[in-house]
């Protein structure tokens, strides 16, 4: 298991990503949540967890994390 931490000022947002690239995106029920780091050597998307969640749950969780980061 790998663990990494970033200062909040380096994290731009959360992203919801598809799990599978096969078939239409709207028919893929599984999503992964990632943090998007905007600067430095770690720039890019970093998965929060290695497992998938239902699309609706991923969108709701992403919105809550993004709202918390803005506060």
Keywords for this structure?
alpha+beta, 4-stranded antiparallel β-sheet, 1 helix
Task: Please render the helix and strand layout as text.
Blueprint: E1 11-18, E2 30-37, E3 44-47, E4 53-54, H1 55-70
Antiparallel strand pairs: 1-2, 2-3, 2-4
Short description:
With 71 residues, the protein is of the alpha+beta class. The chain is built from 1 helix and 4 strands, in the order E-E-E-E-H.
Description of the molecule:
The structure is a single chain. It is built from 1 helix and 4 strands; from the N terminus they run ββββα. It is α+β, with helices and mostly antiparallel strands and 71 residues long. The protein has one domain. A hairpin with a 6-residue loop joins strand 2 and strand 3. The protein is globular, with a radius of gyration of 13 Å. The model has no long low-confidence stretch (mean pLDDT 83).
